[in-house]
Amino acid sequence: MFRATACVLALAIVSGAVGQTRPVQWMSSPADAIKVAKRTQKPLLFFVPGQDLGDLDDQQQVVLRDAFVRDYIGDRFIGARLTRSTNNADLFTKWNAPTKYGQYMLVVTPSGDLVGQIGAEVIARKDQFIGALTGNFRKYRSALYEKELLPQFQGEKLNRNNISKALGYIKSFIITDADKMLGEFAARTDIDKGTRKRVYETLAELSTNAAVASLAKAAESDTDAQAALKKVTPAAAAQLAESALVVNGEVRVYVYEAVAAVAKVRDAKPARFWETADAEAKQAEIERVAKEIREDAGKWNERWADIR
How do the pLDDT tens digits run along the chain, 308 residues long? Predict the structure, then answer.
C-alpha cells in the first residue's frame, strides 16, 4: 500500500510546492471511523477542535491543507473529528483527554487503546507534525505485530490464510520489526511456493539490511527471490551494489539486474555481456550502475528514510 502511494505522495509534494490544496477530510462519526479502523486495522487519528487559537489556528490550517500531509494521513490513519459533546464523554474519560480546553489529536488503536496525543503547537509545524504522526504509527504497528501478527508464523501447524493476511499487514504497514523473522520463515521447508513468494515480496517492501540480506541469499538459487530483489528501495539497492554485486571478483548477475531495475538504468546489459566482455568493460558498467543507484538512493533517503 505505501509503496503504491509513494507516487501519489510524490505528486503531492510537487503540488504542495505550488500551493495549498483541499484540507484533510475528517469523518464526522467516531463510531463509523472505529468500524473502518477495525476493518482495515489502521490506527485512528481523532482531531479534537479547540477555540481561540489565534495565529496557531491559521498555521494549523496551512499544515492541514498541505497535499503531502493530507495524503500521509489518508495513507496511514483513519481520520475523524471528535467533538466535546456528551455523546463522546466516555471516550474522553477512557483516554484521559482534556474536555474543556485545547486543540489536539489522539492516535488510537482500532480496539480503542490510546497510542499517543499530538498537541496544537506540533500540528502547526509541518515537520514536527509528520514526525509525531510517524512516531505514533510506528508505535502502533510494532504493537500490532507483536500481539497479533507474529503468532501466526510461530508453531508447527500453520494456517495459510492467517499467514497471508499477516503478510498483507506487514507489507502494507512496512513493519520492519518482522524482517529477521521473515528471513528465517522463508527458509522453512513446510511452506508452499506461493507463500514463500509473498514472503520475498514482503521482505522487498521492508528493505532493511536484514531483509535484503535474506533476499540476496535466497536469490542465489530461487528465481522468485531474484524477482523480489528488483523491488527493493533505492537505498537498499545501493547497499546491494556496494556489498553484494561483486563477490570474490565475480559479478553476481542477478544482483546487477536487480540494481539496474531499481535504478531504471537505460541500456542495462544482458546476461551474456558478463560472459563475453573484458574486465575493463565490466568495471565500467559496474561503476555506471553504482553511480546511478547512489544518486537515486540519496534522493530516496532525503524524502522517505525518516518517515517510513
Answer: 555 444 445 444 444 444 457 889 999 999 999 999 999 999 999 999 987 667 888 899 899 999 999 999 999 999 999 999 888 999 999 999 998 878 899 999 999 999 999 999 999 999 999 999 999 999 999 999 999 999 999 988 899 999 999 999 999 999 999 999 999 999 999 999 999 999 999 999 999 999 999 999 999 999 999 999 999 999 999 999 999 999 999 999 999 999 999 999 999 999 999 999 999 999 999 999 999 999 999 999 999 999 99
- 3.30.450.40, 3.40.30.10, 1.10.287.3510, 3.30.300.30: CATH of 2-143: 3.40.30.10
260 with 198: CB under 8 angstroms? no
Taking the whole predicted model, whether its pTM rises above 0.70 is answered as: yes
Residue 78, SS3?
Answer: strand
Rounded distance, CA 38 to CA 127, Å? 29
- Point out which residues pair with 48 in neighbouring strands: 104
Q: Are 296 and 238 in contact (CB under 8 A)?
A: yes
Q: What is the identity of the amino acid at 242?
A: E
Sign of CA dihedral 227, 228, 233, 237: negative
Which DSSP string do the residues of 102-145 spell out, in sequence order? --EEEEE-TTS-EEEEE-HHHHTSHHHHHHHHHHHHHHHHHHHI
**Exposed e or buried b per residue across 109-128, where buried means at least 16 C-beta atoms within 10 angstroms of its C-beta:** bbeeeebbbbebebbbebee
CATH 3.40.30.10 residue ranges of the chain are 2-143
| Phi and psi at residue 45, to the nearest 5° | -120, 100
Helix or strand run (H / E) with residue 81: strand 78-81
